[in-house]
Amino acid sequence: MKTKTKEILIIALVLVIQTITYIICGIQKSYIHMDEAYSLGLASYERTEIQDNEDFYNTWHTKDYYEDYLSVQEDEIGKYKQVYENQKNDVHPPLYYLILRFAMGFNVGHFSKWPGIIVNIIIFAFITVFMYLILQKLLVNETNVKEKAILLAFLSSITMASLTNVIYIRMYALATLNILITTFLHMKLLETEEINIKLLALIGILALVGVLTHYYYLFFLFMLYIIFAVKYIKQKQYKHLVAYTLTMAIAGIMSLIIFPYSIKHMFFGYRGQGAMDNMTDISKFVTNIVLYLQKLNRFAFNNVLLPIAILIIILCIYRSKNKVESTQKNKYEKLILLPCTFYFLVVAIASPWIELRYIMPVCSLIFIMILYYLYKILKSIFKEKTSNIIIATVLVVTLIMPFVLKIEPEVLYSDKREIVKQLQNELNVPTVFFFNSNNNRFLDDILLFATVDISYVAKDIEYTTDNIQSILGDKDLSKGIVVFINEGQENDTIIDVVKKAMNLTNSEYLKRLNACDVYYIN
Description:
This protein is about 65% helix and about 5% strand. It folds into three domains: about 35-110, no CATH class; about 185-400, no CATH class; about 415-520, 3-Layer(aba) Sandwich (Cobalt-precorrin-4 Transmethylase, domain 1). The chain has helices at about 5-30, 35-45, 65-70, 80-90, 95-105, 115-140, 145-155, 160-165, 170-190, 195-210, 215-235, 240-260, 260-270, 270-280, 285-300, 305-320, 335-350, 360-380, 385-405, 415-425, 445-450, 465-470, 490-500, and strands at about 60, 430-435, 455-460, 480-485, 505-510, 515-520. The chain has a six-stranded mixed beta sheet with strand order 1-3-2-4-6-5. The chain contains 23 helices and six strands. About 40% of the residues are buried. It is an alpha/beta fold. The chain starts with a helix and ends with a strand. Strand 5 and strand 6 form a beta hairpin.
C-alpha cells in the first residue's frame, strides 16, 4: 500500500472513531444552556428575545409557542435576512448563525439539538485534520512523525474540552477551526522566502472569516501579526511587512463592509464596555487566571495538568543540575505558544464570566503544546524508547481520568435527563413559571416549556389567593400542576399560597435547574 494512501486511510479511521464518539455524546446531551437557546433563536426567530413579544407574559401558551423560537418554520425556509438583523441587535458577528440557520432548515417546525451538533461534528473533522498538519510541523525532527501527529491530533479531539465544544451549540467550534487554519497558514508563511500572494490571500480570507465568527479571534490574530511584523522589521523585509499588513487591513475593511456593527459591539455595546472595564480591574486578573487554569485542567487535560506541570518542573530542575543540553528549538513553537498565551491571558481578564467556552478555541493547541514540551524535555534526558513509554503513560492516564473521576462534557447535563422525561411524559400538566424579572434567565429553561402541553409565565405578580385563582381557576388540576420559581423570591410562601388557593395538599421538590427551582403540587 502506498504511503499516501495509508496515511489517508488512517486519518479517515480516526475521523470515523471521533465522529462515533461525538454522536454518542450528542445522544447523551439532555438539556441546553441559555446561550444555546440564544443560538437557535437568533438563527431562526424574528427578534432576539422571545420575552419581547407583547403576549409572552401572563398568557397561557402551548409548547408550539416556544418551539417557534427554537426552530425554523415552514414559511421561513430560505429567509436569512432576519439572522443578520438579530446579530446587529445582539453582541456577536453573524457567520455562525447563518450556518446554523441553514442546518436548522433540515428539521423544520420542531426543536432538535442535532442540527447544531452535526455542524460542529463536521467542523471538528476539519479541526482534527489541521491539528494533524500542525503537529507534523512541530514534530518534524522526530521519528514516526505522522504516527505521533495523528495520535496526538486524535487525543486532542476527545478531551472533555473538545467534547464540550462539539455538543455546545455555539460558535466556538468554528472559532477553533479558524484559529487552527490561521496557525497552519502562518506556519506556511514562516517557510516562505518570497511574497506569496496566494498564501496571503488565504490568510486574509481566514482573518475575515475569523472576525465574522467571534471577536476573541482577534486576540490570537493580533499576536501572530506582532510576531511577523517584528520578524520582517528585524530582517529588513519591508516589502513583506507591507504586503502582510495590507492583507490584514483589507480583511479588516471587508469585515466592516459586511458587518459594520462590529465597531458598536466591540467598543460601545455592553459586552465591549464590560471587557474594557475588566481590563482596567487588575485586582481580578490573578484570580481569573487561576480560575481559568482550573477550567483548563479539568476539561482540556481531564484533571492531569497539575501532575504534568509538576513532572515538567522536576525534569527541568534535573536537567539544569546535570547540565543536560536542551533539544533544538522548533521555529514553529512561537506561532502557537505566544498567541495561545496572549489569548488565554486577555480572555481571562476580558471575559464577562469564568466559562470554559471562552477558552475552548485554544484548548486543543494548549493541550498539544504542553505534551510537546514534556516530550522535548524527556528526549533531552532519556533515550527515545524511555521517553515514548513515559509520554504514552501520561496519555493513557489522561484518557482514563474522566471515567475514574466521572468527568463529563460541561454541557452534557446528564443530571437533567430525568426532569425532562418527567415533564414531557408523566408530569405533562399545567405549568406555571412564577417569574421575577430582575433575574431574567428564562431561556435557560425554555426547553422544558417547549415540551409541556400548556404553560404560563407569571411576571412579577403579587402572590395572593385571588391572583393565583385568576391564573389557574379554569384549568384541570386533577393531576396537579408544575411550578417553576426563579431567584429572588420566597419559594415556600409561593407554594403555600398556590396550595391554599387551588385546594391542593402535597408539594414535591423536583429539581434545581440552571436558573430556577421546580416543584410538583397536587
